Amino acid sequence: GMEKLIVCVHKRPNALCRLICFPWAGGGTSLLAQWGKLLSNSIEVFCVRYPGRETRLNEPFAKDMTSMVNEVTSVLVKELQEKPFAFFGHSFGSYLSFAVALHLKEKYGLEPVHLFVSGAHAPNSEAILPIKTISVSDAKDEEVIEYLQTVGGTPSELLHNEDIRKHLVLTFKGDFKVLQTFSFEKAEMDIPFSCDITCFNGGDDKPYDLQGWQELTSGDTSFYELPGGHFYLLEPSNEIFLTKHITRCIENAGL
User: Fold this and answer.
1) Looking at 114, 125, 230, 245, which residue is catalytic?
2) Domain Thioesterase, which positions (predicted)?
3) Which pTM does this prediction carry?
């Protein structure tokens, strides 16, 4: 399961901590897996590869959030029990990383030392609800492509190739359907986490409802707005800021 699900480009068996990265809807592992060379030697980077892409191209897309959470958890739980870990997710990956963290806490009593989320509403926010009403199946390919061009993040040369374009649309729709099955009801008094949470977003992106993240942990919550749109993290200067900041937070977590 590990080889299928996890990409680790820079192996660091002696690292003190692992950073598990969760890509965005329609995304692969190429960018976030490379963070291994930007983070300090004390951190090993794992990037989660979702079904239906890269070496998992022939697998069907996940049916729902629960099945993705179960797959990630069952494959990684041994690794996560052996040393401290942190999560980073962007957009769809933020919701998945949160759902995985919640499951790990409830089922195994495990918790990340830090949760880094990017370009996403707080899971307890009503701002998520409209996502559920979008009819993805009916969306025309052109509409999806137009949306992908608007938010950025997909190299335009890929969109010129018809086979790649078709596959991108299918992948994005598959992930978006999974996102629509995500639900989180926050119980009145129950604060799920005690770790710090850091929220990143692009200043030119649509505004996200981030305040709710503070209700989900007894730790500190901090917010950083970086220049750029939804895919601000692809800008080299922002990538340097993110990887330096993440390294510092993890090293300060007193491992």
Assistant:
1) 230
2) 18-238
3) 0.96
Please give the C-alpha separations between residue 115 and each of 95, 156, 179, 194, 229, in angstroms, as whole numbers: 11, 32, 19, 10, 22
Q: With contact defined as beta carbons under 8 Å apart, do 240 and 216 qualify?
A: no
Tokens 């509409």 label which residue? 143
The dihedral sign for the CA sequence 39, 232, 69, 252 = positive
User: Taking a C-beta distance cutoff of 8 angstroms, is the pair 84, 115 a contact?
Assistant: no
CA 117/CA 211 separation, integer angstroms: 13
Quote the domain boundaries for residue 144.
2-253
Q: How far is it, in rounded angstroms, from Cα 169 to Cα 143?
A: 10
Would you call 230 a catalytic residue per the annotation?
Answer: yes
Q: Which of 91, 97, 118, 125 is catalytic?
A: 91
Total number of domains in the chain: 1
Question: For residues 120 and 233, is the Cβ–Cβ distance under 8 A?
Answer: no
pLDDT by residue, tens only, the chain of 255 residues = 899 999 999 999 999 999 999 999 999 999 999 999 999 999 999 999 999 999 999 999 999 999 999 999 999 999 999 999 999 999 999 999 999 999 999 999 999 999 999 999 999 999 999 998 888 888 899 899 888 888 888 888 888 888 989 999 999 999 999 999 999 987 766 889 999 999 999 999 999 999 999 999 999 999 999 999 999 999 999 999 999 999 999 999 876
| Strand 196-202 to 85-90 pairing | unpaired
Residues comprising the chain, all counted: 255
CATH code assigned at 229 = 3.40.50.1820
H helix or E strand, kind and range, residue 225: strand 221-226
Residue 193 is given by DSSP the state B
